[in-house]
Structures are given as structure tokens and as C-alpha cells.
Amino acid sequence: MDGEGSASALRYHYATAKGWINDPNGLVWFKGYYHLFYQHAPHFETPWHESMHWGHARTKDFVRFEELPVALCPDMPYDRDGCWSGTAVVKDDVLWLFYACIREGTQAVAAAYSSDGVHFEKYEGNPVIPTFPPEGGPDFRDPAVCFADGRFWCVMASGNRERHTAVLLLYESDDLLHWQYRGVLREWENAKFAECPSLVKAGDRYLLAASVCREEGHAFSVAFGRFADGRFTAETEGEVDKGPDQYAGQIFADPHGRALLISWIPGWNYAGYREKDLGCLSVPREVTCEGGVIRAYPAKEVRQLLTERDPAVIRTEEGFRILRQGRADVEYRGEIRDLKILRDGRVAEVFVNGGEEVYTALL
């Protein structure tokens, strides 16, 4: 990524050939490829000039990517104000996309499907979840759909303005098309709303993640625990990626049983800093939990790209600093048993102590 924000200088972080990119959506393995969808404005380098689309790319190795035609366009009455974030799930060899659709401020859930993973049709009965329940609020978005215990589950991100809480709301279904509300799955106090949740099977446990927008700032919350009969019981919790130049991480389960996390770089705090889009997607990080410690470390496909030193990462007596142009440095203070750096143009992903802490920076 050069000084003008061109994606052409990125070697292995995915970026679109043209247009704006933000949240990763619908991360899934389907018909021999990892598919990456993402929020996209195909005709503009900055957002809000057109309603959100779903861009689409696929890869086999997370290093070489093939950009595919736009998967979802806001062309229906229920999504004319945008096809917003969501997830993907495979059922009977068909790829289903679930996304937040917006019309005149009303947020709901719509579905689309594909047999080839490239061309998508929208479900004629959309929206499949038309509005929020009393425990939620108008911020009602980012459906996270998964299959567990013989049923499909959908986690919706929302917030309750009266109680000043961020909430994850749970729905269940037998067929992906008819959803029944089950109640609040998780809640955070002193927060405005949650965004971009993930519910993923991870070994003999489940992983529940969300971007929590607190009254001041935000955090990427990750919890491992048990999920049964519509209830999630957290056993270990943490905040994996400390940023500061990342947002909207989504975690998905791949065919090898890995829980892989991909985030949007650089996040909203950087929007407008340049006239051209600087956005890309992070490398996949494998999220694990051992001995009560949650880690996020680059997937094996990209580990050969890791180094131990970089001119932008300066070791100090207390830890290290990541140097950024025109903004404050990123500072880490603490014990360093191991330090690995993944540098690609103006993007740096720094992994401390085997991924116990992760720092993502646009330099």
C-alpha cells in the first residue's frame, strides 16, 4: 500500500481493485475455496456515496485471491438503503448468505442463496426476521448464523438504549427461513450496542465474539464456553486484537476444525484520513484457548511471512512501539517472550507471546 492508499502495493492482504471495502462478511468454505465477502461501495473510494453492497473474493491459500462479481446489490424494496453485514452457512450443498437489510432506517434480516458460490438469488420471502424484539432496539443487525445441536441459530447484534446495554439476541430455526426468538444470549452494561457477532464451534466448546461499542471506545470481546439449548455459558473471556487500526472481526469454522478470525483494517477511526480508500482485510488468525488463555495467531498458510524485526516496530525497555505516520505511536508495555511481525506495505500485524495479544496498525 503506497502513500496514496493504493491496494496494488499489498502483497497478501486482500483489497478490492476498485472501491471502498470494510467489514468482512460471510466467511465460509464452499466448493473448494475460502470465500470472503465484505462491505463494499464498488464505484467510490470513500463510503456513503452509495448504499452498501457485498463484494466477493475467494482463495485457496489466503495469499492469492480472485476477485469475483459483486454478490449482493441493494436492488429490492427491503434493502434499498443497503445490504449490510452478515454471515454465510452451507445447507444441502447450497450457500446461503444472511445480511442486515435496511429501508428508511428499519433494520431487518434478509437471505440469498447460490448453488455455485458466485451467482446469488434473494429469497422471495425476505425479510426472514422483520424487526427487533423488546429486549433489543433499532440498532438490530449483523446476523451470525450457525448450525449446532441439530438446529440453526442466528445471533443478532443490538442494544437497549433505556438500559444502556449492548446485547446479543438469539433466534432458532429448522430450515433457515422461519425464525423463532429465544431471548438474550449475552449482555454488556454501560454500552451502546454490539456489532458483528460470531458463534462458532471450537473443539468441544463454542466461541462467541462481538465488537462491543461501549459508552467510550470499543472492544473486540471473545469468549469460550458451552452452548446448549440456546444458552451460552462463558468459561474464558478476553479481548484478542487490541487494534487500534482494526474493526468488525468475524470468526468462522473451516473444514480443518479451525476457528479463523479476519478483521477489517484500518477501521472507522481512519476513515476520511485520505481521499482514497486504505482498507483491506487482515490475514486469517487462528483463535484458540489453552490453559484459560485465548490466543489469535496467523493461520499456517501465512506463517512463513512472519518476521522478528521491522523498522516500524521499535523495541523499548518496557515493550515496543509501532510507529505511525501523522498519528500517535502504538505502545505496548509488558513482558515479551516472543514477538512476531507480519508486514505488508503500510500494514503491520504484531503478535505478542504467541498471539496472547495482537496489535494491528496502519503505518
Describe the 3D structure.
The protein has a single domain (7-305), classed as Tachylectin-2, Chain A. The chain has 363 residues and is mainly β. A hairpin with a 6-residue loop joins β11 (165-173) and β12 (180-189). It has strands at 20-30, 33-41, 53-59, 65-72, 83-91, 94-103, 106-114, 121-122, 141-148, 151-160, 165-173, 180-189, 191-202, 205-214, 218-228, 231-239, 241-244, 247-253, 259-265, 280-281, 285-290, 293-298, 313-315, 319-322, 330-333, 339-344, 347-352, 357-362. 0% of the residues lie in helices and 56% in strands. Strands 18, 19, 20, 21 and 22 form a 5-stranded antiparallel β-sheet that branches.
Number of domains: 1
Order of helices and strands: EEEEEEEEEEEEEEEEEEEEEEEEEEEE
Question: Mind telling me the C-alpha Rg?
Answer: 19 Å
Helix content: under 10%
N- and C-termini, Cα separation: 10 Å
Please outline the helices and strands.
Blueprint: E1 20-30, E2 33-41, E3 53-59, E4 65-72, E5 83-91, E6 94-103, E7 106-114, E8 121-122, E9 141-148, E10 151-160, E11 165-173, E12 180-189, E13 191-202, E14 205-214, E15 218-228, E16 231-239, E17 241-244, E18 247-253, E19 259-265, E20 280-281, E21 285-290, E22 293-298, E23 313-315, E24 319-322, E25 330-333, E26 339-344, E27 347-352, E28 357-362
